Amino acid sequence: MLKKEFKKNDVERLRNLIKGKSNSRTSQGVGYTKSMSEDYVEGDIWFEGGRNWTIKDGIKENITKLDKFKSSTIPLFCPKCKHVLDKQLDANYYKSFGECLDCRAKFETKLKISGEWEDYVKKTSNLEIDLLIEEYKAYYKEQISESNKGYVTESGEVEQWLGNIDEDRAQASLDSVIEYLEGLKK
């Protein structure tokens, strides 16, 4: 049983220890820092000190091979309300909406109170259908552009297959599927 709660500095210190940054600071200090020779803005990329740097969300970050991994992990604190993301559903809500469960509930409650909830649900549903249509069109283009001049089997033999895709029939099928999906919009 814990006799005291963890403070934000304690959580940051544990986070630094887990990441292997035992020398990282968890509090602000006062002192002189060398000013940057150039002023950079959001999205700029530059090379300095043997590393590539950029500015994301107002913070100077170095560009690494793990940037995609960084974006897939969840932070310790909600970016909107700054509370610890410790509830069971917070991780799922952060991955979907970029905020904790409480922030999402407040947002949806405001929409329901203002009477904009149905419009929001329709808009979200229609955006999902539009995304599905775009993915289906990309799949269609990929299948049409695929050649059937030869396939390599598991044993390494090249097989020649006869026949081609009937592009008119495939286009008609694509059009009918898109028409069906457009009919699902609210």
Summarize the structure.
This protein is mostly helical. It has six helices and five strands; from the N terminus they run αβββααααββα. It has two domains: 63 residues, no CATH class; 68 residues.
Architecture blueprint of SSEs:
Elements: H1 8-18, E1 45-48, E2 51-56, E3 59-62, H2 67-72, H3 90-97, H4 101-114, H5 117-145, E4 151-152, E5 158-159, H6 167-183
Antiparallel strand pairs: 1-2, 2-3, 4-5
Helix pairs in contact: 5-6
Tell me what you see in this structure.
With 186 residues, the chain is mainly alpha-helical. The protein folds into two domains: 63 residues, no CATH class; 68 residues. Helix content is 46%, strand content 10%. It is built from six helices and five strands; from the N terminus they run αβββααααββα. The strands form two sheets. Strands 1-2-3 form a three-stranded antiparallel sheet, with no helix packed on it. The longest helix is centred in the C-terminal third of the chain and has 29 residues. The protein is extended, with a radius of gyration of 26 Å. It starts with 7 loop residues before the first helix and ends with a helix. The mean pLDDT is 85.
